[in-house]
Amino acid sequence: xxKTNRLDWSRQVTLMNERIKSFQANxxxxxxxxxxxxxxxxxxxARNGGIEIPARFTVN
Length: 60
Prior knowledge:
Largest sheet: none
Number of strands: 0
Helix content: over 70%
Number of domains: 1
Strand content: under 5%
Order of helices and strands: HH
Distance between the termini: 18 Å
Shape: elongated
């Protein structure tokens, strides 16, 4: 995985995590729908090759 691909993947994960934190801070239908849409977009990107997901990664 190239540095650019890893950076793209890292940004996507960060966006998903922020969306989830927003839902946790303010649980509601609108926030839940946003989380679901973000997860669907991530899954679709992984499925169609739009984003490369590393087999392993280290969390700092």
